[in-house]
Design a protein that fits this description.
There is one protein chain. The mean pLDDT is about 80. This protein folds into two domains: about 90 residues, DNA Methylase, subunit A, domain 2 (DNA Methylase, Chain A, domain 2, Alpha-Beta Complex); about 40 residues, no CATH class. By secondary structure, the protein is α+β, with helices and mostly antiparallel strands. A two-stranded antiparallel ribbon has the order 1-2. It has a two-stranded parallel sheet with strand order 3-4. It has a two-stranded antiparallel ribbon with strand order 5-6. A hairpin with a 5-residue loop joins β1 and β2. It has four helices and six strands, in the order αββαββαβαβ.
Length: about 130
């Protein structure tokens, strides 16, 4: 989640707003040849190659923040910011299980009656509403 900590906290931001990424007139991203690539202490790059190549270099979904006035495009089973717009608008994290439930209209006073992994599946598919209890 180190990459998400560096995504600016404003509407429409994603990995494209990080230093070292250029966006061409054709909307394709490329590495800035005048900047050295940034690596984390772990040795992994701050911006993974898959973010740059996702959807033929044109995607703005990797590590993107959803803003307060935007509609969530989809709630996914695997809450990873690698290819979905699921970063919290003001905090450096993905949405919680409870926030994902709220996005789908499930009231806050309902409680999930399953293990965390099953809760995520129930929220993302939203067909098992009987697993929620008021």
């Amino acid at each position: 989640m180190i990459t998400s900590c560096r995504i600016p906290k404003k509407k429409g931001t994603c990995f494209r707003d990080l230093p070292g990424v250029l966006v061409g007139t054709d909307n394709k991203v490329e590495w800035d040849p005048d900047m050295e690539r940034v690596y984390l202490v772990s040795g992994k790059p701050l911006i993974p190659d898959y973010a740059m190549s996702f959807v033929n270099e044109t995607s703005s979904k990797p590590f993107a923040r959803l803003w307060w006035d935007e509609t969530v495009p989809t709630v996914v089973t695997r809450a990873k910011p690698h290819n979905q717009v699921i970063l919290h608008p003001e905090q450096d994290r993905v949405f919680t299980i409870g926030e994902n439930a709220r996005l789908q209209g499930i009231p806050d006073f309902y409680k999930l009656c399953r293990q965390v992994k099953e809760q995520v599946c129930n929220i993302s598919f939203h067909h098992d509403v009987h697993y929620f209890q008021p």
